[in-house]
Amino acid sequence: MKKIFAFLIFCSVPSSLVFGSPETTQILEKLNSLEKTVSDLSFRIFALEKRIISFEEKFLFKEKSSINNSGDLKQQSETVPDDFEHPEDNFSFTNVTYKDSYNDTIFKGDVINKSNYNYNYALFKISVFNNKGAVVSSNDFYILNLDEGTQRSFEVKLHGIKSDKFVDYAIKFNKGS
Fold it and tell me: Which residue among 12, 13, 127, 154 is least crowded, i.e. fewest CB within 10 A of its CB?
């Protein structure tokens, strides 16, 4: 997004020199308009990310049918049941860092699967809290192919929140298959 914004600025400045220098307010209005457009596009991308995650969740967690020896279709669930308890210590998070990016905060780190299960798809939720302990923002993220004992990197963006707006964070496992 930075590259697009810089490109648009570099295109508008030389054109203003060639075609005459418009007033400063006109340039600022155009830049504000571009900033609003880029912001709108980022929110649309965020909405699409949510829809894709929802679709993947439905696709990966739905019951799959298989054929048994008699040739009949048999429903077989390959998901972990919702009432199945996952102890908090099944996953550990290391090297977690975060930094601001425009109006967002990007978290990066590693997750280690310390459970006795192999996950093709593991869904996690990251939440950030203010100084009163209230959730300020949260986002879901997933990690593919998280086998028993493996370590995977993750990166998740919290939209519309900067690091000065929260004091603590928590990452929890939601479900997996």
Answer: 13
69 contacts: CB under 8 Å, gap ≥ 6: none
Count of residues for the chain? Answer: 177
**pLDDT of 105-134, one tens digit each?**
999 999 999 988 888 888 899 999 999 889
Do 168 and 96 fall into the same domain? yes
Confidence of residue 71 (pLDDT cuts 50, 70, 90): very low
Residue 32 is assigned to a structural domain of this protein:
yes
Kindly state whether residues 55 and 132 are assigned to the same domain. no
Nearest to 174 by CA among 56, 57, 94: 57
- For 20-55, how does the pLDDT look when each residue is reduced to its tens digit (9 = 90+)? 555 778 888 887 777 777 766 765 676 677 667 666
Asked if residue 79 belongs to a domain, the reply is no
Residue pair 78/60 in contact (Cβ under 8 Å)? The answer is no
Residue 6 in domain:
yes
Number of domains in the chain: 2
pLDDT at 69 over 60: no
CATH number of domain containing 116: 2.60.40.1620
